[in-house]
Amino acid sequence: MANDDLLRKHKVTVVGCGNWGSVAAKLIASNALKLTAFHDEVKMWVHEETLPSGERLSDVINQTNENVIYLPGVKLGNNVVADPDLEHAVKDSDMLVFVSPHQFVEDVCMRLAGKIRKDVEAISLIKGMEVRVEGPCLISYLISRLLAVNCCVLMGANIANEIAMEKFSEATIGYKENKEVAERWAQLFSTPYLSVSTVEDVEGVELCGTLKNVVAIAAGLVDGLEMGNNTKAAIMRIGLKEMRAFSKQLFPSVMDQTFLESCGVADLITTCLGGRNRKVAEAFARNGGKKSFDELEEEILEGQKLQGVLTAKEVYELLRINGWLDLFPLFRAVHEICIGHIPPSAIVQYGEIHLPSSIPSSP
Amino acid sequence: MANDDLLRKHKVTVVGCGNWGSVAAKLIASNALKLTAFHDEVKMWVHEETLPSGERLSDVINQTNENVIYLPGVKLGNNVVADPDLEHAVKDSDMLVFVSPHQFVEDVCMRLAGKIRKDVEAISLIKGMEVRVEGPCLISYLISRLLAVNCCVLMGANIANEIAMEKFSEATIGYKENKEVAERWAQLFSTPYLSVSTVEDVEGVELCGTLKNVVAIAAGLVDGLEMGNNTKAAIMRIGLKEMRAFSKQLFPSVMDQTFLESCGVADLITTCLGGRNRKVAEAFARNGGKKSFDELEEEILEGQKLQGVLTAKEVYELLRINGWLDLFPLFRAVHEICIGHIPPSAIVQYGEIHLPSSIPSSP
C-alpha cells in the first residue's frame, strides 16, 4: 500500500475504556478491518488501572484483547491498541469517539485542547447532560467548543452488553450540516446487528438521551401503582410528546422525525421497560411515597444517584423560570412527586388539565 | 326547559352492546347528564339474546342498569336505555356510535339506510378492517357510503375493561374536515380518566388500529426468541415507521402527527406488551416455527383467528401487487414467517438490508 493511501485513511481513537467504550471499540475495529477508508489500527485511550494481580489494565487489554474489567469475555479485535497516554493515543487520529463518563469529559477535552490534529471529527456517545436554567449543557457543544471541532452524537436503544452479545439493535447519529461526515461515522458503527441511521439534528438526538430518564420515572410510578399497560402506554406517549415539545422550545431547529428514530421512541421504550430509573420509581410508588428516592437509591442502587431524578429537578427549574410549567404537566408532576409534594398517583391525573391541547403541537 | 332547547340537544345512540359498546355507553351516559348540549337519555341498540334464566338481555339491562353478559359488575348509568329494535333505537338520534364486531357492520348499515335522520353524524369504534389488494376497506368509509353520513373514528390504547375500571387511558378521534363535530365527539367521550384528542386524519387513525397487529406479531417473535428489550424496542420502532410509510403510500393525506397520538405509538406499545397477537407469536417462536399459527391459535385461542396473521397476509398481497415489498421489510418478514417460508429469527435480520434508508421517510 502506498504511503499516500495510508495518509488518506481515517484513523480512529476511542477516548474511553468503560463498558460502552469497549463495545464501541469492538464495533469500530471490525469495520476498520473491512472498510478501506479506515486505518486498520484502532486506538483506545485507557484510564489506567492496576488489576488485583498487579498488572496494568492497558497491558492486559493489549495481551488478551479483552477489557477484563469492563467487558470481560468479549474479544475486542486484535487491531485494538490500548494506550494509557491520552495525548499519544489521539495524536495521529482524525476521528475521535468520546465515551467517558459525563463528569470527566470536560477535563479530558481540556487536556486535549491544542494537542489534536486540525482536521479532527468528533462524536459523543455520552448521555447525561446537565440541564441548567439557561438551557441544557449539550456534551457535543462542550466538546465542540473546547476542541474547536465539529461534533456529532450517537444515541439510541442500545445497551452495551446486548450489542456486545451481537443482539439486534439500532442507533441514531445526530449531525450538524455535514451529512458526509455523519455517513462516515454510520459506516464505522454499522454491523449486521447494529443498524445506524443519521438525522440532521444534534440537539434533538442528544436531548432524547437525557429526557427519556424523566419519562422512565413516570413509567415506573405507573408500574408501582399497578395501573396496567394502557395507562403505561399513555404515559410513555405523553412523555415522548413532552420530550419533543421541550426540545423544540429550547432549539427551534429540532426535528419531529428525530423522535421516531432509535434515539427517540425506541430508547424511550427500552428505558421504560427495563432500567434503573423505572425500577426505583416503581419501588417508590409501591411504598406510597413513604420512602424517599434518596433512601431507595441507597437500598436498590447502593447510593448511586438516579439520572432521572436529577434531570427532572433541573428540567423543572428551567420550566419554572420560563413560566412553562403548565405546558409540561408530566415533567412537572414527575419532579413534584419525586420531592414528595404530590402523591405518586398524581402521575395519571391528567384528565383535569386537558393535556393534549395544552402542549404546543407540531405543525 | 323549553321545547326548542330539547330539540336542539344532540341525541346519541350506541349501535352495539358488546364489551366496548357497553363501556362507550357508560362514558357517553355520564357526559350526557353533565353537558347541556346532549339529551340525557342515551339509547343502546341490543342485539337481543336470551339469558339462561329465560330473561331477555335488553330487559335485564334496563332493569339492572348492567350488561350482565358483556360488562358484568359495572353500572352503565340509569340514563342508558337498551332497545332491541334497531330502527327504533336510532330514529330520534343525530349521533350514532358504531361499535359492533366488524363482520356485522355492513349488514347493520344496510338495515339502517334510509331509516335515520338526515343530520346524523357517525363515529366508528370498530377495529379490524380488511386490507384488499385495491386498498384497505376503511370501516368509516363503509358507514359513510352506506348511510350517506359523515363518519369519524375513535381509536387508541384503550382496553374496554380497563376504562370500565376507570384507569387512565387516552383515545384519538380522526375526523375529516369538520373539526367542530370532532370536538363534539371528544366532549362526549372525555372523562377525567379518558383523555381524548382529535386529529384531521380519518385514514391514518383507522389504519393504526389495524396495522399495529402486524407489528405485535413481530414483537411476539422477539419475545419468543428472548432477544431482550433493546431488540424489541427496535422492532416496535421499525414497525411504527412502516405503519406510517404504508399509510402514506395509500393515502397521501395521512399526517405524521397521527403516529404520535394514542392511536399510533401508545396503542402499538400496549398491543406489543400484552395482547393475543403478541402472545401467539411468542409461542410460535418458542416452538421454532414447528407448530403453525393455525395450530397455536387452536391451542391458545381455541380456534379464534388472530387479526394480525390475517392482516399481515392481506398487507403482503397489497405490497406484492404494487412492487413495494422491499420498502417494507418488517411487514414482509412477518407474513413470510407466519407461513413458514423463513424462520422466526429472520425478524431481526435487518442489518443486511439497511432498513432505515430504504423506507420512504417523512419530509
From TrEMBL, chains A, B:
Its EC number is 1.1.1.8. Residues 11-179 form the Glycerol-3-phosphate dehydrogenase NAD-dependent N-terminal domain. GO terms for molecular function: glycerol-3-phosphate dehydrogenase (NAD+) activity; NAD binding; protein homodimerization activity. Residues 201-349 form the Glycerol-3-phosphate dehydrogenase NAD-dependent C-terminal domain. It holds the Pfam family NAD_Gly3P_dh_N. It is an enzyme of class 1 (oxidoreductase). GO terms for biological process: carbohydrate metabolic process; glycerol-3-phosphate catabolic process. The keyword Oxidoreductase applies. The active site is at 212 (proton acceptor). It catalyses: sn-glycerol 3-phosphate + NAD(+) = dihydroxyacetone phosphate + NADH + H(+). GO terms for cellular component: cytosol. Substrate binds at residues 127, 276-277. NAD(+) binds at residues 16-21, 104, 160, 276, 305, 307. It comes from the Eukaryota. The keyword 4Fe-4S does not apply. Keywords: NAD, Oxidoreductase. Belongs to the NAD-dependent glycerol-3-phosphate dehydrogenase family. This is Glycerol-3-phosphate dehydrogenase [NAD(+)]. It comes from Nepenthes gracilis (Slender pitcher plant).
